[in-house]
Design a protein that fits this description.
The protein is 43% helix and 17% strand. The radius of gyration is 28 Å and the shape is elongated. The protein is of the alpha/beta class. Helix 2 packs antiparallel against helix 5. The longest helix has 29 residues. It has 13 helices and 14 strands.
């Protein structure tokens, strides 16, 4: 009798813990706005686990079965897998197989759902719930592989501080070293980048991006600013196809961006150049991309020479990358991207750890660049010099979009989002960065 009471007490405690724990996790996860299929799977798994906890009198196997369901649910939706994130797709199969095994074993032990000569009503109900779980898992697995914009809700309208500027430009610099801009009326109608309703979450950090809408014209120069953890690098990984969006649409020059597909229209310069340079010589490193495009040797050599000349590092062609300075490695990294001839380049903290001379060299290069680019940087003075439009990103949302000198001059806005008004925008007898 005492064993019976103890067993049932344990069952009730486990059932309550499963329900309350899931409610807490679900509340946390809802901050990233789950798909309805995920919510259905969670509800069915918890219902199945609770039914197993409460079924029978002394069958500890049912307790273990319920714990198994809760463990798989936690692994599928809540466990941070880090670099093993791809294994999450296998967990769908594991949970589905586990459910099928549970159903099969039940009917082997209780043919036709009969228990001690009577219909096992609770058992039948549990198996029906598990059958629905299999269907919901299939639906969720399908949508986890193909996120759609239909599941995204419209994003909140960002604060428009000023009309966005920055139009396609001619590659030839003017007398001030800046490229000449094409008038808006002559700007191409098709965006270089179009992002609609973009959402993304990490397993241990929901709501990293919450319905971003961004449009970039060919040749436009966009700065992306915001505090650490705002989602800037994640945004870059998504538009390059490295990460998979939770919901939303991304297109480059009218073509949809698909997860893990190669998109030659876009290139990304990493914050740490060491992550990008790995060949014995600079020439080999810059040639790596064109060679993998299947170009003829003569075409590869022409691209390498052009990229190294454009970035001003042709004299470093035969040197090992690890013998170069930080500034030299940065320019070689850019040359490697230019050799692929992308139409849009992403720069993640390009001025980080550069000395004054290397930083100025990079600024001069970007001012004459003919490609559209997006730059993420905490160096706000750098953004002022090389960008004609800026987005302020914080907590996964676009807070402001407009002229850098208008957006970043708003001290109250900047401080509210972990930034400072740049020194050059404070009153001075002689303005900084004057044309």
């Amino acid at each position: 009798m005492e064993s019976f009471i103890l067993t049932n007490t344990v069952r009730i405690i486990l059932a309550l813990a499963a329900a309350s724990g899931t409610v807490y996790l679900l509340w946390s996860k809802l901050q990233s706005e789950l798909r309805s299929a995920q919510l259905l799977v969670m509800g069915l798994v918890v219902t199945t686990a609770v039914l197993h906890f409460l079924s029978g009198a002394n069958d500890n196997l049912l307790i273990l079965n319920g714990l198994g369901y809760m463990g798989l649910l936690t692994a599928l939706y809540f466990l941070p897998l880090g670099r093993f994130e791809n294994a999450r797709s296998w967990l769908y199969g594991v949970l589905g197989g586990y459910t099928l095994l549970t159903i099969g074993l039940y009917f082997m032990i209780h043919p036709w759902g009969m228990h001690a000569g009577d219909v096992d009503t609770l058992g039948w109900f549990t198996k029906i719930v598990e059958g629905l779980l299999l269907v919901a898992l299939g639906v969720d697995f399908k949508y986890s592989l193909q996120p759609t914009a239909s599941s995204a809700r419209p994003a909140s309208r960002p604060v428009e501080l000023a009309p966005a500027v920055g139009f396609p430009m001619d590659s030839a610099p003017n007398s001030n070293g800046k490229s000449n801009h094409v008038p808006p009326s002559l700007a191409p109608s098709s965006p270089a980048l179009e992002v609609k309703g973009l959402k993304f979450s990490y397993p241990d950090k929901p709501g990293v991006l919450k319905g971003l809408n961004v449009s970039l014209l060919p040749g436009e120069r966009l700065g992306l600013i915001g505090p650490n953890g705002a989602g800037k690098t994640t945004f870059f990984m998504l538009i390059c196809g490295v990460q998979k969006a939770e919901a939303g649409e991304i297109s480059l020059f009218g073509q949809p961006v698909k997860h893990r597909d190669f998109h030659p229209e876009i290139g990304m310069v990493f914050q740490n150049s060491a992550d990008q340079l790995f060949s014995p010589t600079v020439r080999d490193d810059v040639a790596f991309g064109p060679q993998n495009l299947g170009l003829a040797p003569a075409a590869v050599e022409a691209r390498v020479t052009e990229a190294l000349t454009t970035t001003g590092v042709i004299d470093l062609a035969d040197r090992p990358p690890h013998h170069l300075s930080g500034g030299e490695r940065r320019m070689v990294s850019i040359a490697g991207i230019l050799a692929m001839q992308p139409q849009l380049i992403i720069y993640d903290e390009p001025s980080a750890n550069l000395d004054i001379r290397s930083r100025r060299r990079l600024i001069n290069f970007l001012k004459t660049s003919s490609q559209a680019y997006i730059i993420s940087s905490h160096d706000l003075e750098f953004i002022l010099e090389v960008c004609d439009r800026v987005l302020l990103l914080d907590e996964g949302r676009i807070i402001a979009d407009g002229d850098p000198r208008v957006v970043m001059a708003d001290a109250v806005l900047m401080e509210a989002h972990g930034l400072e008004k740049p020194h050059s925008l404070r009153p001075h007898p002689i303005p900084h960065h004057s044309p």
